[in-house]
Amino acid sequence: MIQYSLQCSKGHRFDAWFKSAAAFDEQQARGLVECAVCGASPVEKALMAPAIARSDAERVPLSAAHPDFARFREMLRDYRRKVMTEADYVGDRFADEARKMHFDEVEARGIYGEATREEVVSLLEEGIDFLPLPDMGEDN
User: Fold this and answer.
1) Structure confidence at residue 104 as a pLDDT band (50, 70, 90)
2) How far apart are CA 72 and CA 62, in angstroms?
3) DSSP output for the chain
4) In the beta sheet, which residues pair with residue 16?
5) Which phi and psi (to 5°) does residue 78 adopt?
6) Which among 9, 29, 66, 113 has most CB atoms closer than 10 A?
7) How do 88-91 and 111-113 pair as beta strands?
8) 31 near 49, Cβ under 8 Å?
9) In the structure, what pLDDT confidence band is assigned to residue 113 with cuts at 50, 70 and 90?
């Protein structure tokens, strides 16, 4: 997996994960990479600091009191709402439907649903890109 810092034509910056650099290039060429903030395309790689490996023992500081916490949480809620209103719910057929789209057996479209841990691992091994839908329950 590789993480890129991206920027849309309107100046919004966001991060996204891809199976590989080639997967990003292929998705970008097909027009599948859109701004996570406004949905604009095209999206280009932005300058980013290199990742530095950390040992498992190191702790990462997290804070719910960070000034951007509420804004980030609302962005996640908006993303979840957008997916659930604009994509097709495929239930436990998610892995099968994602595979069919990846191999051009059916027309690509937005989908969401559920997958087992084994199905997730299989999709990743096959180079099929997807994102988890954040759980944004009010009690979180």
Assistant:
1) very high
2) 13
3) -EEEEEEETT--EEEEEES-HHHHHHHHHTT----TTT--S-EEEPP-PPP----TT------TTSTTHHHHHHHHHHHHHHHHHHSEEEETTHHHHHHHHHTTSS----EEE---HHHHHHHHHTT----PPP---TT-
4) 4
5) -60, -40
6) 113
7) parallel
8) no
9) very high
Distance CA 41, CA 44 (A): 9
pLDDT band with cut points at 50, 70 and 90 for residue 89: very high
- The dihedral built from the CA positions of residue 19, 41, 113 and 83, taken in this order, carries a sign that is positive
Pairing of strands 43-45, 2-8: antiparallel
- Tokens at residue 72, please? 């980030």
> Tokens at residue 2, please?
């590789």
Sign for the pseudo-dihedral over CA of 98, 104, 107, 108:
positive
> Which amino acid belongs to residue 25?
D
